[in-house]
Design goal:
By secondary structure, this protein is of the alpha/beta class. Bound molecules: adenosine-5'-diphosphate (ADP).
Length: about 850
């Protein structure tokens, strides 16, 4: 290192402290990168890689981006999951002795971006942290830097529960301690696409004491302090806007594992990862970005407390019925900007005067909102209105200080109103008088010289000047002006008097700009005391926004208010909220659902494409909509309150993650069976399809039986194994229903109508026909089907036969098995000990390979 240039030594020293980030090293007008960083950044950012002479044999690879356009490059890197350390010159290069001092002033990571261009306004950008405790429990913290919001969640199960929870929030970065067991770390990495960051300091940062005064669990303190320390370390700036963390009690919310949330397409579609086509897309008629973010949070955590749910429904009902008021409310909310993120930027010190005007306008809407809410006598609306407090003093401050249309820059003046500060007014008067004097001078000189085109102009280099065209310059009285500059068609002059005035004007100008900046910063500092109040307003306004959105869509789509009941579920003419909306033409066929204490398992048969899985999803979505406090797509809905929803529907994207369909199916089924209660909803679509017929059917059979006997959860189970419909006779709680389709002239017509009873044909070939497969192929398939069907008739699977099929669950039956060799025994033993849930697909493959080796060599 010693034979490096001093600047390079400085670079290497700083880089050593930021190994896992791109170091943007400020050199004049550029951020430069060197060595490995440069090579990788040149690729990722598609910029030119150059070399810098290092005085050594090998030149150093280098690349750079101009500092004024750095934001776009940083965004690209951060979105790709990298971290970027911004290293600035922290002393004036003109006065510096030796190498200019440089320091990393901010670390930008996927979870800590603040710049609005890098954030989605309708979505929260959480960074998470995970802390594991001696007693086996975990605490997850979610933090949103742009709004200062934090959530704390205690999980007492296992790492799988942690993974489900983290997957549901789609966090991009997770802060952990270096002592988190390796096996956990590997699972987090394998199952979540996530950037891991490390922070070992879990003692509390003193300045944030008051944030945690209500936290009485030592584990929460430690976990929260881990993430705070990480943020303080990476952001290195004011964090006034951090809010007291909310403790989320998972038992108060419907638990949706990651499979269900994905399968039900609550916030994005499975295939396109698109908001369009998701439940959120249908529900979102919010007007503000804060409302949109709050809605997403509500959808992700449906409530279980009936009082809370009813509270929301009451407000929705009121707003539903008040078309005019709702319209007015929506109109008023349009002038409310993102108060939550504005508050964050106030704290970070990067608001400009335009932001403050937005803040003022937003706050000024509050009296209007209050007036509208005052029209309602409902106690829930009154309670909301009471919490909406108009911050009059704050509005007055902004009203008196900031001009209505300020520029972007806060360093060039023109932001503070006249009359706000006396000194500023004096400068401005001087400026105005000076300028008036110049206009007067222009007039006077025109008269004296009799040159009509004489004019006084200004530029940065020469200041004020008198400009006279060459054609007229002979008219100037001898010695009147001093020549300063010659242009092609004019001459520019000055006079001592003009220069004297100029000095005064420029001084007033400079001083007023400086003063304006000072005043602005002072106002911004004052606002820091108001952050908490602004955040509270933001929360209330977001709630109002979500509730009006519910009322709006409920009215538009003809939803009805659900009632909550103890046990028996009944839905009359239920619809799938998304498909109905996509079809738009009113052709969606509504269906009823009845699930009672006696008959809580519905076994659904019907041809492919009949609408079985749509029927199942529609039920889950209806329940979720009800439990977030929205009306539901049905003519009538009596719903018990559900504690958990499990689904096993479709598997479109599992192959991408490298797991076999069958494996995923079993993981998901296992998850449902081991967690569900009699208050849960289980949806199982075509379970067992991923394996050979008998295995599949046996598994499906056993699963239904297990739910019937042990779990007693409300269950919808669709199957193409028509044999399973016999279970209605043998199992007490099973009822058959089917989705009707009819055949006319060899063609299937799907009626999408659900009826009691069982379907008896599979119609699969007809669907192939619909898909335009070649005629010859269809004919051949029909013949093969006939053959298979005649064989099938002879088989007729019985209960005890199924038992033998199921034997792979049991201990090997010794009398039937041939004696195993030693290595085979060893393989069996190893197989028993494997914990499949803790393996990545690759690890499973490797294990399989090694087992195979043992028995084949
Ligand atoms: P299955 O699960 O029986 O194979 P799906 O539920 O996937 O069938 O439905 C197939 C298609 O039929 C869906 O894409 C949907 O467009 C349409 N569909 C399903 N249910 C209805 C309904 N009730 N009304 C109108 N169209 C429906």
């Amino acid at each position: 290192m010693s034979n490096q240039t001093p600047m390079m030594q400085q670079y290497l020293r700083i880089k050593a402290e930021h190994q896992d980030a791109f170091l943007f090293f400020r050199l004049g007008d550029f951020y430069e990168m060197f060595h490995e960083d440069a090579i990788k950044a040149a690729q990722e950012l598609e910029i030119t890689l150059t070399k810098r002479d290092s005085g050594q044999k090998e030149p150093i690879p280098m690349c750079g981006v101009p500092y004024h356009s750095a934001e776009g490059y940083i965004k690209t890197l951060v979105e790709k999951g990298y971290k970027v350390a911004i290293c600035e010159q922290v002393e004036d290069p003109k006065t510096a002795k030796g190498v200019v001092k440089r320091e990393v002033v901010q670390l930008i990571t996927p979870g800590t971006v603040m710049e609005s261009s890098m954030l989605h306004e309708n979505e929260s950008n959480y960074i998470g942290s995970l802390t594991h405790f001696q007693d086996g429990s975990f605490v997850i913290v979610y933090h949103e830097l742009s709004t200062g919001e934090s959530q704390l969640i205690l999980l007492e199960e296992d790492i799988t529960q942690v993974i489900h929870e983290l997957a549901n929030q789609q966090i991009k970065e997770l802060v952990i301690g270096t002592s988190l067991p390796d096996s956990y770390r590997r699972q987090l990495e394998a199952q979540l696409q996530i950037v891991l960051s490390y922070e070992d300091e879990v003692n509390f940062v003193g300045e944030f004491r008051d944030l945690v005064e209500d936290l009485n669990d030592e584990r929460f303190l430690k976990a929260f302090s881990r993430i705070l320390n990480y943020i303080v370390r990476t952001q290195k700036r004011s964090l006034h806007h951090l809010q007291k963390p909310h403790v989320i009690q998972l038992q108060n919310y419907v638990s949706l594992d990651m499979y269900s949330k994905r399968n039900l397409e609550l916030t994005e579609t499975i295939r396109q990862k698109d908001r369009y086509g998701s439940l959120l897309w249908v529900l979102d008629k919010t007007v503000t970005a804060m409302g949109a973010r709050m809605l997403k949070k509500w959808v992700e955590r449906p409530l279980m407390d009936q009082r809370q749910i009813t509270g929301r429904l009451e407000v929705v009902e009121q707003l539903y019925g008040a078309f005019m008021e709702r319209d007015l409310l929506r109109e008023t909310l349009k002038s409310v900007y993102d108060l939550e993120r504005l508050a964050g930027r106030v704290s970070f010190g990067n608001v400009n005067a335009r932001d403050l005007i937005q803040l003022k306008q937003s706050l000024k809407s509050i009296p209007n909102i209050k007036n509208i809410l005052n029209e309602f006598s409902n106690s829930n609306i009154k309670a909301i209105n009471d919490k909406l407090v108009y911050p009059e003093a704050l509005v007055t401050l902004l009203e008196e200080s900031i001009i209505d249309e300020p520029p972007m820059s806060i360093k060039e003046g023109n932001i503070i109103k006249n009359g706000y500060n006396e000194q500023l007014d004096t400068y401005r008067d001087a400026l105005k008088n000076g300028k008036a004097w110049i206009l007067e001078l222009e007039k006077r000189e025109k008269e004296i010289t009799n040159i009509k085109s004489l004019k006084i102009g200004y530029n940065r280099v020469f200041g004020y000047y008198i400009e006279i065209t060459h054609a007229n310059k002979h008219l100037i009285p001898e010695g009147r002006y001093e020549r300063k500059q010659t242009l092609t068609n004019a001459e520019r002059y000055i006079t001592p008097e003009l220069k004297e005035k100029e000095a005064l004007i420029l001084e007033a100008q400079e001083k007023s700009v400086e003063l304006e900046y000072e005043l602005f910063v002072k106002i911004r500092e004052e606002l820091k005391n108001e952050i908490e109040a602004i955040q509270q307003l933001a929360t209330i306004i977001s709630q109002i926004d979500v509730l009006q959105s519910f009322a709006e869509i409920s009215e538009q789509n003809n939803y009805k208010r659900p009632t909550f009941v103890e046990n028996d579920l009944y839905i009359k003419n239920g619809r799938h909220p998304v498909i109905e909306k996509v079809m738009e033409d009113g052709t969606y066929v509504p269906n009823d659902v009845t699930l009672t204490k006696e008959e809580f398992i519905l076994l659904i048969t019907g041809p492919n494409m009949a609408g079985k899985s749509t029927y199942m999803r529609q039920l889950a979505l209806t329940i979720i909509m009800g439990q977030i406090g929205c009306f539901v797509p049905a003519d009538q809905a009596k719903l018990p309150i559900f504690d958990q929803i499990f689904t096993r529907i479709g598997a479109a994207d599992d192959l991408v993650r490298g797991q076999s369909t069958f494996m995923v199916e079993m993981l998901e089924a296992n998850h449902a069976l081991s967690h569900a209660t009699d208050k849960s909803l289980i949806l199982l679509d075509e379970i067992g399809r991923g394996t050979s017929t008998y295995d599949g059917m046996a598994l499906a059979h056993a699963i239904v039986e297990y739910i019937n006997n042990n779990i007693k959860a409300k269950t919808l189970f669709s199957t193409h194994y028509h044999e399973l419909t016999d279970l209605e006779e043998s199992l007490e709680h099973v009822k058959n229903i089917y989705v009707r389709a009819e055949e006319y002239d060899d063609k299937v017509v799907f009626l999408h109508k659900v009826e009691v009873g069982r379907a008896n044909e599979s119609y699969g070939i007809h669907v192939a026909k619909l898909a335009d497969l070649p005629d010859e192929l269809i004919k051949r398939a029909t013949i093969i089907l006939k053959e298979l069907e005649s064989k099938q008739k002879q088989i007729n699977v019985k209960q005890d036969e199924l038992q033998t099929q199921l034997s792979f669950f049991d201990e090997p039956k010794q009398q039937n098995a041939k004696k195993l060799t030693n290595s085979e025994n060893e393989v069996v033993k190893e197989l028993r000990e494997i914990n499949l849930l803790e393996m990545t697909p690759l690890e499973a493959m490797n294990k399989l390979y090694s087992l195979h080796q043992k028995v084949t060599k």
